[in-house]
Design goal:
Strand content of chain A: under 5%
Largest interface: A-B, 23 and 33 residues
Radius of gyration of chain B: 17 Å
Shape of chain B: elongated
Order of helices and strands of chain B: HHHHHH
Number of helices of chain B: 6
Largest sheet of chain A: none
Shape of chain A: flat
Helix content of chain A: over 70%
Radius of gyration of chain A: 19 Å
Structural class of chain A: mainly alpha
Oligomer: heterodimer
Distance between the termini of chain A: 61 Å
Largest sheet of chain B: none
Number of domains of chain B: 1
Strand content of chain B: under 5%
Helix content of chain B: over 70%
Number of strands of chain B: 0
Structural class of chain B: mainly alpha
Order of helices and strands of chain A: HHH
Chain lengths: 83, 134
């Protein structure tokens, strides 16, 4: 086993350092992209690059927009309660 | 003849479902949906790898204290997860806090996406056979 192999395996045996801060919310973006991509890959009748990227991008944007709207509404609600 | 055809159809559905579980997108590959197969293989593979990278292989602990829904979703991943679970049993790879949560969420979602693809590939195989007139 080469040094590179050992280093690659080592990255999967110790967790990354992630702090509980607002930037940690950005981890939802790759997950949302994966969900949008797989969902559109299963639903489109025929896969062509242009249509697929467009549809996946629209779904990705919709999910992110819904998350932002929900988060904003909850934040506003908490602000109203705590004032 | 009709009985033989029905048996072949059932076998095809089982093969497509099993292959889809063994490797994401493999069921579509059998159905000659190669673009779909590649997209699904890369996306689900990357999602699983990101989860294992962030939380380490310690997030896959099917014998550990994680809730049942986490384990049920993770089992839907390809069988490599079962191998990893055997390796991480006993708490040799501890992971806590945000890396644990993010790793679990990513591995759960990749498992659930794989389940979606298994069901969809089997459905596609079934409908394709019906459309072909068999």
């Amino acid at each position: 086993m080469s040094v590179i192999d050992i280093l690659v395996i080592a990255t999967f045996t110790a967790p990354e350092q992630i702090r509980a801060n607002p930037q940690a919310m950005l981890w939802l973006l790759p997950l949302t992209a994966a969900i949008a991509t797989v969902y559109k890959a299963t639903k489109l009748p025929t896969i062509t690059a242009g249509v697929f990227f467009k549809e996946a991008a629209i779904l990705f944007g919709s999910i992110v927009a819904f998350i932002i709207i929900t988060a904003s509404a909850l934040y506003a609600l908490i602000w109203l309660i705590s004032v | 003849m009709a009985r033989l055809s029905k048996e072949n159809h059932t076998q095809l559905l089982l093969i497509v479902g099993l292959l889809s579980w063994l490797a994401p997108g493999a069921g579509y590959f059998v159905l000659e949906e190669k673009k779909r197969a590649i997209i699904i293989f890369v996306t689900i593979g990357l999602t699983l790898c990101i989860g294992l990278y962030v939380g380490s292989i310690g997030v896959i602990d099917l014998e550990g204290p994680a809730p049942s829904y986490v384990k049920a979703a993770q089992v839907m991943n390809p069988p490599i997860v079962l191998v990893l679970s055997h390796r991480t049993a006993g708490g040799g790879y501890p992971v806590y806090g945000w890396p644990n949560e993010i790793g679990q969420i990513y591995t759960m979602v990749s498992g659930l996406l794989n389940l979606l693809c298994i069901v969809n590939a089997v459905s596609l195989a079934h409908l394709g056979k019906i459309r072909a007139g068999d």
